[in-house]
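seq as requested:
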Amino acid sequence: MKTLTILGSTGSIGRQTLEVAKHLGLKVIALTAHGNIELLEKQKDEFKPETVVLSSEPDGEAKLIDIAKNSGADIIVTAISGMAGLAPTLAASETGKRIALANKEPLVCAGEQVMQAAKKHKTEIIPVDSEHSAIFQCLKNKSEVSGSQVSKLILTASGGPFRGKSREDLESITPEQALAHPNWNMGKKISIDSATLMNKGLELIEAMHLFGVSPDKIEVVIHPESIIHSMVEYTDGSTLAQLSVPDMRMPIQYALTYPERKPSLSAPLSLAKLGKLTFEEPDLDTFPCLRLAYQAAKLGQSACKILNKTNEKAVELFLSGKIRFLDIPKMIENAIYSDASSRV
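struct tokens:
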């Protein structure tokens, strides 16, 4: 029986991971959370882990890092939101165990360090994001990317709740409107990132490190049905895609059971009932966050850190009603180019 440590068990991914663990009959030996004590207590009562850590306590961060490194679990699920997930992910990358990676920020801000540590310690990183999981499933191995077989990786995006809107339409957007994603049930931060297309920008930076490619070899395509989760285009003209209903429990399960496949909690896909799949190019004028992510990726890790940090702050300000929706990319652009100018 495989054992799990779940970092961030009370968040959306953490809760769904526990559903999958129960379905598969996996033993959970450690849980961590930040502030949702009531839910953490319920999880503790149901799954009876050996260790529970509340990171909001005075020594919580140190305990979080320790549990990431020393829990002894076969698989460490990193589902902590934001930069708080960086230090425990780096610690987990030194374990030689499997990391089911569901936190973007560690690779966005410290991708080289995380991947180098994982390589040094022979730690296996399996992506949980549906897009990166799809690419992982399409590739036989990473050497296809580093060699000459793959021409590009194609990340699909739903387009969020404001697909097709103009900049004028977005002038008076409220947090409630931005949180209403058409396909996925996610946390507040990732929902706003999806609405601005920053989520896809962070994913392209993450994909660079996971698969060892330049940003020029990553394309983003709007696919509102969220059925094709991503694709790999090969140099012979073939394109492989991974399709499934939009349900995060499927990529979570694959990260836990890889290389095996087992019956899942997700509903099977009926293409006949679906009827059609549609695609379009992203509107980078209306949603400049994706353009800024490409630029940060080309500028390097310092720019990516600033992109991520400023975006987190801007999303926080927007959710609290202190700035407008369209101020988010303005803040990010100013921060990136202020840093670039100071280093010239």
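The radius of gyration is 19 Å.
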